Backbone:
């Protein structure tokens, strides 16, 4: 990367510098002293667990020629220029964007935010753009991808320097539309500073990340930043409204009252609304009205929550003025995101149905179970858990939901991180017991009353569920979806729900399937 003039990087940012920066050039930008290259600009960002100002000496030792700070700081090398700004988080995003030539300005940028549905919507919209003849790039939970490139995602929304570098690659590769999942952490931490979105989609809001945000009002306010701070003036806001009392309805009313951007509602009584004609485990058939234009759609996705995802994506496509035919073709062929209501199948499929889903919040788990339950001829067997070092308040809530909807519930480990898995399971159990559930061993599952199992080993829990399942049953393995690892006190270990389920299906049902 060619050296950049610091004055150009600071354009539009109010700053104070003890030295003239008009002739100063830097070869890189970083907020991590360990990644800084000689001749680079170091931005001291204050984070949740660390303060970049504590690492100024390391940055200087690594070769920084200038540092950006938000308070007077001591730097031992007098030759290093100090640049003071009001907020280094905001400055980092804008500096990184300028360093990489503001790549977002040459592409159409779509942001998707919400507790659930972001990843599914990104896959659906990607397919619509392809069918419309565009070249999409996607930045999201599963991976970062554009034509010829697939990379594992480190975060749903990467840090500003990596994000701008990625956008620059996409621009160089001829990407026309960037579809970005925008997490609440990214909004709060300023990762999308320096980007103005053309269209922004709100999918929903339900309990999650309260360990970070504190309460739902703060969580909602952070999500709203995508629309109030980062959406272009006269940009298109697409809001999914689950009902008139939902967070989406509140956001829709707020944006309409402000009048700064164009607003499109999706859901019952809104500009984009649909009528489901058939919903089964094989998919959805529905009729959709897009601002008065009515069209038929089919989708292999399952469930009412995916109807809302589809409506939201169609709203975005409408806002982008993409052809109706492209929307219809895309919906008919896109199977959604990996690990989202993903079936695990053996050849022939003559075995108990197994579905892997990423549902790891109370709302998501309830949505999936409410979808599966009426479509299942037999029983619903649920394997689920809750992550460690995260919002503890949702654990008993998810336990209660499991007892309410599943015929057989098995609580197990799900990324315990630094916590004791047994303690997490105990907190989940509190909700199960409150709903009248009784903990039993496998041999005592039969009989009256609500009963559940607790099996700490996720591998054993999956094996148990599949061994208990009959041909007309559905086994739902929720919480991890596309993830192929477990995060434990011992570190990151390989574990894939889909692989474990397939191996167990082969053990239990392989011969029967082969005979069929």
Residues:
């Amino acid at each position: 990367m060619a050296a950049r003039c610091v004055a150009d990087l600071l354009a539009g940012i109010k700053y104070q510098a003890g030295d003239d920066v008009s002739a100063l050039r830097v070869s890189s930008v970083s907020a991590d002293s360990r990644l800084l290259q000689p001749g680079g600009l170091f931005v001291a960002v204050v984070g949740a667990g660390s303060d970049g100002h504590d690492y100024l000496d390391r940055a200087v030792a690594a070769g920084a020629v200038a540092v950006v700070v938000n308070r007077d700081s001591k730097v031992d090398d007098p030759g290093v220029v100090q640049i003071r700004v009001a907020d280094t988080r905001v400055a980092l995003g804008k500096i990184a964007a300028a360093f990489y030539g503001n790549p977002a300005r040459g592409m159409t940028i779509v942001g998707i935010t919400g507790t659930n549905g972001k990843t599914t919507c990104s896959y659906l919209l990607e397919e619509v753009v392809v069918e419309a003849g565009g070249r999409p790039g996607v930045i999201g939970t599963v991976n970062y991808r554009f034509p010829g490139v697939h990379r594992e995602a480190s975060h749903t929304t990467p840090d500003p320097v990596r994000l701008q570098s990625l956008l620059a690659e996409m621009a160089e590769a001829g990407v026309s539309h960037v579809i970005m999942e925008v997490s609440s952490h990214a909004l709060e931490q300023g990762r999308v500073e320096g980007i103005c979105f053309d269209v922004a989609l709100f999918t929903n809001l339900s309990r999650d990340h309260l360990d970070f945000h504190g309460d739902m009002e703060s969580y909602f306010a952070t999500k709203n930043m995508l629309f109030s701070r980062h959406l272009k003036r006269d940009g298109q806001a697409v809001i999914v409204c689950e009902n008139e009392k939902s967070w989406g309805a509140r956001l829709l009313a707020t944006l309409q009252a402000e009048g700064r951007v164009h607003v499109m509602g999706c859901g019952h009584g809104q500009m984009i609304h649909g009528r489901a004609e058939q919903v089964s485990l094989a998919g959805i058939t529905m009729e959709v009205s897009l601002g008065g234009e009515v069209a038929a759609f089919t989708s292999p996705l399952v469930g009412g929550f995916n109807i809302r995802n589809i409506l939201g994506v169609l709203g975005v496509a409408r806002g982008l003025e993409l052809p109706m035919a492209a929307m219809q073709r895309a919906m008919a062929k896109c199977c959604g995101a990996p690990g989202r209501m993903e079936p695990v199948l053996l050849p022939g499929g003559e075995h108990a149905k197994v579905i892997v889903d990423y549902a790891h919040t109370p709302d998501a788990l309830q949505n999936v179970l409410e979808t599966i339950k009426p479509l299942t001829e037999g029983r619903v067997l649920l394997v689920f858990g809750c992550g460690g070092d995260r919002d503890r308040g949702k654990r008993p809530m998810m336990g209660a939901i499991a007892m309410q909807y599943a015929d057989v519930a098995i609580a197990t480990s799900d990324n315990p991180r630094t916590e004791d898995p047994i303690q997490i399971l105990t907190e989940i159990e509190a909700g199960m017991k409150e709903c009248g559930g009784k903990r039993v061993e496998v041999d005592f599952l039969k009989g009256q009353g609500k009963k559940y199992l607790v099996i700490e080993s996720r591998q054993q829990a999956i094996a148990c569920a599949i061994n208990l399942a009959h041909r007309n049953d559905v086994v739902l393995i929720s919480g991890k979806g596309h993830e192929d690892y477990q995060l434990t006190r011992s570190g990151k270990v390989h574990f894939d729900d889909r692989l474990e389920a397939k191996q167990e299906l082969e053990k239990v049902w392989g011969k029967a399937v082969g005979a069929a």
About this structure: The chain has 16 helices and 27 strands. The radius of gyration is 25 Å.
